[in-house]
Amino acid sequence: MTVSDTARPAKWGGTTAFQNPLLRTILRYGVSTVGPIAVSGAHFIASLIFLRALPAREFGLFSFVMVVVSFGMSAAGALIVVPITQAIVSGNAATRPICFKANWLVSVLFAVLLFAALAASGAPPLQAGVLGIYGAVFAWRWFARNMAYVDGRVAAAIASDLCYSLLLIASLGALFFVGRLSFATGSETMLVAALLALLPFGRTFFRAQFAALSTARLSDYLPVFRDVSGWALAGVILTEVTVNAHAYLVTFISGPGAFALLALGTLLMRPAALVQSALPDLERPAMARAIAAGDFAGLARIGRHFTWGLGAAWVGTIALAAGVLVFFPGLVLKKGYDLHDVWTVAVISSFIVAIRALRTPPAVLMQAAGAFKEMVGIGIWSGLVAVVATLALLLAFGPIASLGGIVAGELIILIWIRRMAQSWRIRQEAGAHA
Q1: What phi-psi label fits residue 13: left (phi over 0), alpha (psi between -120 and 50 degrees) or beta?
Q2: Is residue 8 part of a domain?
Q3: Structural domain includes residue 262
Q4: End-to-end CA separation in angstroms for the chain
Q5: How many domains does the chain have?
């Protein structure tokens, strides 16, 4: 059996549900993206609620939290999930409990770092602490849903996403309508929703997490960090510099209020952005299994379907954003925001998201292949270009122009990662036929 066979739909009544490859792809991604789409929709609605209820500065802080939390999710994936995925290829069962214990440390460190970043941005200390814990819990939840994908427990991941989304929307909506929504109550609501969304993963998962505290040793994680996750983390950090240099530079130099405009434009691209964050969790294990089985035809098929899924998310997001700005601009605009500026940011952001849709499948392929050291080199150059260009454009022309630096960094990643993936495929296929 090839790896791609494991991704086929179940048979109903003795016949395969869908024979058409495109329909199989739609079914597979349709089920897998229900949760991420729900979370994306919840964050979109939450952002609109915060936009209407909070001053620009506090809305900018909330948007900055979303940027940093997204980084925390990626960092947790690199430090914890990637080694476990690599163990699928190597067959090393000892990696799992070691990474489970390391997950506790990663969560605590992330809470501290997010608290420090928010405090430096001017957030009240109490709310900075609450949001720091929220970031750690959300990253831990993301780790749990990644493990659910690895273990074939997709229903648990979807249930967690839906639980978080419904709780967040219902709670923030209720606070908004009774006039009790503030930066403080909103922060507390987000934390409670993230905590309750851990419940669908069940007792077995939590038992394994707590058991790792006593059975695994953090010292055993050091070789894992040295060989795999350290390089993966370096890649995540450098990618974060490339992708979100504008968020950090604009927030710390021009203030959260200035970042609010960029956040308002990029908010419209959030559905596609979240799908781009979620689908790798589904495809990375599938690619790792294909590599282990030497199934290069299945690997190519996964990559092709991966690209189709990301492209469909991008098209849908563009249609949604255009519809909102043309027919319902009042949803995203209030005093202090110019429609022309929002359109400009949205167009630039859509171009950035399109580039990411093209470079994500080959990047995930290289992660599944364990080429983390090679990818660090790409990140160094793209990050350097992004930071220098973003800072220069910000100081010379203002926050909106700073997005041009992100475009430059993304293009470097796209060109280099596609070349790297193509070279890797040629070498692997040549070795298989030798």
Answers
A1: left
A2: no
A3: yes
A4: 22
A5: 1
What does the alpha-carbon distance between residue 333 and residue 257 come to, in Å, rounded to a whole number?
Answer: 14
Alpha helices, H only, 226-269:
230-249, 256-267
Summarize the chain as % helix, strand, coil (round to 5).
85, 0, 15
Report how far residue 142's alpha carbon sits from residue 263's, in angstroms, rounded to the nearest whole number.
22
Domain membership flag for residue 9: no
Structure tokens at 316: 């849908």
Number of helical (H) and strand (E) elements in the chain, helices listed first: 18, 2
Is residue 1 a part of any domain in this protein?
no
Which range marks the domain in which residue 248 is found? 19-433
Phi, psi for 20 (deg, rounded to 5): -65, 130
Helix axes 125-150, 270-293, angle to 10 degrees: 40
Query: What would the two tokens of residue 306 be?
Result: 């991966």
Q: Are 350 and 321 in contact (CB under 8 A)?
A: yes
Nearest to 338 by CA among 255, 245, 400: 400
Pairing of strands 15-16, 11-12: antiparallel
Calpha distance 416→371 (Å, rounded) = 13
Gap between the Cα atoms of 328 and 376, Å rounded: 43
Q: How far is CA 149 from CA 70, 142, 146, 276, 342, in A?
A: 19, 11, 5, 16, 37
Degrees, nearest 5: CA angle 5-10-13? 130
Amino acid at 301: R
Per-residue pLDDT 10s for the chain (434 aa) are 334 343 443 333 344 444 555 566 555 555 556 777 788 778 878 888 888 888 888 888 888 888 888 788 778 888 888 788 777 666 666 777 888 888 888 889 989 989 998 888 888 899 999 999 999 998 889 888 888 877 878 889 889 999 999 999 999 999 999 989 999 999 999 999 999 999 999 888 888 888 888 787 878 888 888 887 887 788 788 877 777 888 888 888 888 877 888 887 777 887 788 778 778 877 888 888 888 888 888 888 888 889 988 998 899 999 988 998 888 887 777 656 788 888 999 999 999 999 999 999 999 999 888 887 788 888 888 888 999 999 999 999 988 999 999 999 999 999 999 999 999 988 887 776 66
10 Å CB burial of residue 18 (0-12, 13-18, 19+) is middle
DSSP 124: -
Residue with structure tokens 């405009």?
261
CB atoms within 10 A of CB 135: 29
